[in-house]
Amino acid sequence: MTLGKTLAFHSYKGGTGKTTLLANLAALYAMNGKKVCLLDFDLYAPSLCTYFRKTPSHSLNDLLKGEADIADVLMDLSAEVGGSGKLFLGFSSPRKEDINEIEIKHELKWQLAAMRRLLSAKNELFEEYGLDYLLLDTSPGIRYWSINTLAAADGLFLIMKISDMDIEGTKNMIKDIYDALAKFGSKYFLVLNKVPGASPINEKQWGTSEKNWIVDLERDLGAKVIASIPCYCDVQFNRHEFLSAVKQPEHPFSKKLIELAEAIEKA
Amino acid sequence: MKYPDVFPGSARLIEGALPPSSLLLIGPSGVGKTIFCKQFLYNGLADGETCLYVATSESPTAIEKSMKSFGFDTTSFKENDSFRIIDCYSWKVGGASSSKYVVTNPGDLAALSMVIEKAMRGLNKIRLAFDSITGLTSVCDYNSTYFSKFLQVITAKIKDLNGNSIFVVAPEAHDPQFISYLRQVFDGTLEMKEDESGEEIRRLLRVFSLKGASHKTHWTPFEITDHGIVVKNEVELRCMMCSRIIDGEPHFETVGGNTYSFDSAECAGTYRKLKALYGESFE
Question: Does A165 reach chain B within 8 Å, measured CB to CB?
């Protein structure tokens, strides 16, 4: 049996737009006939349930505790996207008690058991649901569950904004974590998001200098930039941006997302 | 030729007949050592042997009741005196015992030897379960040479009668040196353990060593059912990473000098990644 791909989206800092990109990407793939599952492993600050406005009866926290199976956790949201594919969502719990529990559960035995449950669920997702893509949202930075989620994935996508703080942090993270994972077959790529300069005033000028800048960045970080997505104010600052990539296909953001989706398929 | 079970699972784990042997059964508390002994003895009773049960943690009445609950009714064997309980327990509760073979001071190994010899006298073939060395050492002062002599005398006498014996020990109650030393005294070692890597605790058994017989050495799962211990037919291999039972061909990989079985190359890859990131603490 040919397994699909497991892709994790990660960042050094919060606020890089991971969740927005991932939700849109998952919807795009599903709309185009792929079977996709998106799991919210940003266990320390969950936001996908707010994004999709869902209150699931079981969360990924229940799965990690061994109190629910993956089938109990998943919600089929294919109808909200339309198209011929499938979109399953697994949400983590935004309850204060559940987040605290994840924060304080440092006992290795528990962590190992939880990791085993995640991997068992991952295998089941590919075998039982025939997934093409399992997309994992992760917590920013180097934390227990961001590392675990990254280790469970084949492809790693580092979402970053082009600020010095983000670049330096990402650089260190690549050295400490990504290079170790790459030794065992993981591939990783950079996705620049919220790139300034897309406004009509300086778009032309930025387009030229961007190329040179990206070459320098790739050399500095030792990783390939797979996409550069401009900052679109109407998307970024919309109070409830919701699957723009499929709801507004003519929007430049949607076109950039399609490019990203294609680049990931080829990666 | 199919041989009957001498101890639970012996027909599966040992190739050919089990020669008369003294066996050390090592396993943590609660894993199922006592029911293993009771089943070992009941198999012997059903085969016409006289069976001796040296019990340090249960009264004869409790032993018979517990055996009956698993379908091992010893009433008729007790009546014809083929089931003999050497009671090293009742002294703790005042001495009254339903057994003819009572040890009033188990700390006195000479006295205990005499009671065991008395119970063995005049018999042709016997089997004995000693449950347990841990229970005995908790109430007696001994030096290792004297204790070794005590065990060697009993095991030799049983072998002389073409009998089998099992001696139980809980390793967590002793220092590792004592366990290593015990291994030398017996013809073979059976080991039990609990595997907590999956959703449910699994009990596992293996023949670690056995003189004079070929045997399998892998861990084999067993269950404690209403009818006693059932050693499973097939070896259930679980993935070292995701813990699922491996249905198809296992994927073996050597990591850090140890060979592990995995469900898939993906699981093996994830294990390697986590091991690289977390180091030795990841097991």
Answer: no
